[in-house]
């Protein structure tokens, strides 16, 4: 079965790949992922804060450190196990590139228009075949408008794109009020692809200790639906950009839904963290079996078959459809005897 796909100007043997995560932190796991059929390896992110912190540390070592420096550094997250400093990150990309035959997609994470975007070039020189730019940002400042945040995303994407020759994808969050408009702007900056979507990790509150506790829960299949809607909308455009799904892929049904909605690449993290790299081989085998059973000749035949332009009920994707959903719930579920 032909599962091949084009994503970020790369021809891949299938859409399946591990998403940015600690899965690429260990060389043994990287090799196991390739053996399990990963069509590319996406490396975890190098964060803007890590680059800034590294530069501040160099300054600190060479100049008399002002109090304010030490204070500034203390705001940055302390590097944990797999969070490498910038130089070690570049070395890690080099090692992965040397160890596998599939393309390597590195990841930069940040949102201020500052010098850290130069690292895109260094990552390219380290051998990455493509780059993901993750613009993770919580819009908590009441003086910054949505338009200003979108300008920042576009500006950072432009800087990164102009620093490199390799293809660049932007990993977006779903929390933009006019996502499609932003995507158009990114496309006009020649951005090569989008990864839909970031997941925000929400701190919890410890009510006894009166502390916030960082939480990182792995995803569930229900998270896929938000992605399906936007894949279906964005893949229906005539001059669309390459699309990867990230979030909620746990089984072959999820892979097929994402591809039918228009995904060119399918990234998996939580399912691989839970079940190990071998889960990727299982997904691949299940995908082939399903396509054969349903008499498809290739995966390409399924791609976009349920997007906004082609599905029988486009309104389901395009409109919020609250009325139908809310009235339908009562009739379909009938658990209201308790009321
Ligand atoms: C432990 C962990 C670390 C992650 N690190 C990164 C990262 O460095 N960069 C990034 O863009 N996304 C990172 N992610 C997000 C994943 O790439 C992915 O978008 C998210 O887990 C949703 O996919 P899933 O449902 O398959 O898990 C991380 C996720 C997890 C669980």
Helix content: 40-55%
From the alpha carbons, calculate the radius of gyration and give it in angstroms: 21 Å
Instruction: Supply the helix-strand structural class.
Output: alpha/beta
Strand content: 15-25%
| CATH superfamily (homologous) name | Aldolase class I
Secondary structure: number of strands:
12
How does this model look, in words?
The chain is of the alpha/beta class and 339 residues long. The protein has one domain: TIM Barrel. The chain is built from 13 helices and twelve strands. The chain has helices spanning 27-35, 48-62, 67-75, 86-99, 119-125, 146-163, 179-188, 224-234, 252-261, 270-275, 278-293, 315-318, 322-333; strands at residues 5-7, 10-12, 16-18, 41-47, 104-109, 130-134, 168-172, 193-196, 204-206, 211-213, 242-246, 265-268. The strands form three sheets. It has an eight-stranded parallel β-sheet with strand order 3-12-11-8-7-6-5-4. Helix 8 (224-234) runs parallel beside helix 9 and helix 9 packs across helix 11. Mean pLDDT is 88; it is low at 62-81. Flavin mononucleotide binds at residues 19-22, 44-45, 107, 109, 134, 171, 199, 216, 218-219, 223, 246-249, 268-270. Flavin mononucleotide is lined by residues 19-22, 44-45, 107, 109, 134, 171, 199, 216, 218-219, 223, 246-249, 268-270.
